Automatic annotation (TrEMBL):
Keyword Protein transport (UniProt): yes
Major localization listed first in the record, in broad terms: cytoplasm
Function comment: One of the proteins required for the normal export of preproteins out of the cell cytoplasm. It is a molecular chaperone that binds to a subset of precursor proteins, maintaining them in a translocation-competent state. It also specifically binds to its receptor SecA.
Gene Ontology molecular-function annotations: unfolded protein binding
Pfam families on file: SecB
GO terms for biological process, alphabetical: protein folding; protein tetramerization; protein transport
The protein's name: Protein-export protein SecB
Compartment annotation: Cytoplasm
Family: Belongs to the SecB family.
Subunit structure: Homotetramer, a dimer of dimers. One homotetramer interacts with 1 SecA dimer.
C-alpha cells in the first residue's frame, strides 16, 4: 500500500538521508595534580569526590563538528585537595541531512555519550597512575542533561543552539 501523503513521504526521505559518522576521537587535553604529595598518601579518612562536566561544540566545516567533553574530578579529604584530574575528550562528528533541532540534539546527547567511555577510561588511568585506588566514573544520562539544559535555556530566553556554547 502506497502512502499518498506528500508531507509524510518527504519526512521519511529526510530521515533516511540523515547520516552521522565519527571521523576521529582523541584526547585534546589532560592534567593530573597531587598538590599535597607525598604527605597526602599518609592521610586517613573518607574522601569526597566532586565531578564537573562541560561540553563545547564547534562547527569546523559545512557538516563537521568538534565536540569536546570536559571532565573535572576533584578528590578532597578533610577539606584539602588530594588530587585533581581534568581531561578534555574530543571527537569530530559529521552530521548530514539533519534539521537544526535534531542536529543540536544529536550534538548534545549522542556525541558526548560516544566520548564518555574514552573519558571514563582516561580518568581511571590517571587516578591509578597517580598512586590512588581505581576510580570508575558512573554512567551519565546525557539525554537528561540535554533536556535540563534546554529547559534552563528556554526559561532564560537563550534559545536552543549548542554550537559555540560551553
Amino acid at each position: 500500500m502506497s502512502n499518498d501523503n506528500p508531507a509524510a513521504n518527504g519526512q521519511a526521505e529526510a530521515q533516511q538521508a540523515a547520516q552521522l559518522s565519527i571521523q576521529k576521537i582523541y584526547l585534546k587535553d589532560a592534567s593530573f595534580e597531587v598538590p599535597g604529595s607525598p604527605q597526602v598518601f599518609q592521610e586517613q579518612g573518607q574522601p569526597q569526590f566532586k565531578l564537573e562536566l562541560s561540553q563545547r561544540v564547534q562547527q569546523i566545516g559545512d557538516t563537521a563538528f568538534e565536540v569536546v567533553l570536559g571532565v573535572n574530578l576533584t578528590c578532597e579529604l578533610a577539606e584539602k585537595v588530594v588530587f585533581l584530574a581534568e581531561i578534555k575528550q574530543a571527537g569530530i562528528f559529521v552530521l548530514e541531512g539533519f534539521d537544526d533541532a535534531t542536529r543540536q540534539a544529536v550534538l548534545g546527547t549522542y556525541c558526548p555519550q560516544a566520548l564518555f567511555p574514552y573519558a571514563r577510561s582516561t580518568i581511571s588511568e590517571l587516578v591509578l597512575a597517580g598512586g590512588f585506588p581505581p576510580f570508575v566514573l558512573q554512567p551519565i544520562n546525557f539525554d537528561q542533561l540535554y533536556a535540563e539544559q534546554m529547559r534552563r535555556r528556554a526559561a532564560e530566553g537563550q534559545g536552543e543552539g549548542l554550537v559555540g556554547h560551553a
